UniProtKB/TrEMBL annotation:
It comes from Periweissella ghanensis. Its main location: membrane. The chain crosses the membrane at residues 27-47. The gene is secE. Belongs to the SecE/SEC61-gamma family. This is Protein translocase subunit SecE. Pfam families: SecE. It is found in: Cell membrane; Membrane. InterPro entries: SecE_bac, SecE_sf, Translocase_SecE/Sec61-g. Essential subunit of the Sec protein translocation channel SecYEG. Clamps together the 2 halves of SecY. May contact the channel plug during translocation.
Length: 56
């Protein structure tokens, strides 16, 4: 019971992000994921092309 009271107390003093902050952070995460997907896809394509060239 003491644990639950402690959790409730802590949850009352947490500063929750606003909707604007949530949106900004979500956009940042999605943009970063897209960037790295494209970057790593490009690196993969370059390596495959290079290996195919060397295999000829």
């Amino acid at each position: 019971m003491k644990f639950l009271k402690s959790v409730i107390h802590e949850m009352k003093i947490v500063t929750w992000p606003t909707a604007k902050e949530n949106r900004r952070d979500s956009i940042t995460v999605i943009a970063t994921a897209i960037f790295f997907a494209l970057f790593l896809g490009g690196i993969d394509w370059l390596i495959q092309t290079g290996l195919a060239f060397l295999a000829k």
